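Holo prediction — zinc ion.
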Amino acid sequence: MKAIHSFGAGDVRLVTVPDPAPSEGQVLIQITATGICGSDKWMWRHPEPVTWIIGHEVAGRVIALGPGVTRLRVGQRVAVNNVGGCGHCPACRAGDFILCPQWDGSLDINGGYAELVAAWERNCLPVPDDLDDEAACLIFDNFGTPYGALERGEVRHGDDVLITGLGPIGMAAVILAKLRGAYVIAADPLPYRRDFALRLGADAALPPDEQLPDAVRDLTSGLGVRVALECSGKSSAYPLALSSLRVGGTLVSVGEGAQITLRPSDQIIRRTLRIQGSWYSGMHQGRQVMELMRTRQIDPHVLVTHRGSLEELPAIYRTVCEVEQGVMKAVIFPVK
Ligand SMILES: [Zn+2]
Ligand SMILES: [Zn+2]
């Protein structure tokens, strides 16, 4: 099959590799749509060759069944949950692979930048005919991640929410928080992204500078927001998000890569704040996101600014990683 291989920082090329074979409990999927995730930027900058095929936002069609597959059939369209759990603990039985106590990444399903991928049957969500491939590949990560974060922050109608970091995840959080009936303040250094968020329904969009907490208070009758979703992964966003919370509020930590110094007494304890981690999504959350897409309550396509073939992937990947203006989400369609 054709696949993209990384040969070092900024050097990815289309190569031919052996087709993957589905092992026990796996199906072979012909990839029809595959997203380029913000976290794939780490692989773009990785100085050494990446030994696996990058890409973890896969939708496709089942073309072969491995031994022991009972539920899926050949021809079925699926969206793939990329986090691999042990498959038999209580969390995995519930489809919450992110909560599997044995998770170590070794069973994760990567390899989205290719024509074919083998995936655990338990990680495949059947997709109905009235949902297109582009939407399907955005279920578990691009929309599932912020969906889970808003659930864990218990964001409800009438809440005030601050979303820091307006990449595709933060932008999907804006869409989903508005759907929940929240008042949404979006923050990002880039005017392009702030304008994008306003077009998607954000009530205000601000730069994440030291005035942010005061500006947030001005917009919330002096209280601050009840929930902040940190989606930028930038260390500087944490003190701003914590100071923007009202007493008793919750910071949901979503964007990866930050390193922070915390003064618990001032920043957390005496303000009775909660910091809640939230990673990716489970099968149940994916099903709920799919239903929101299928019933047109959310439109995932509004995020997609770049589309192309596997041959065009290296150039689009470069654009996503090195250009900020005019770029939001990219989706690749490996099947011609
Ligand atoms: Zn991702
Ligand atoms: Zn498990």
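READOUT: The longest helix spans residues 139-152.
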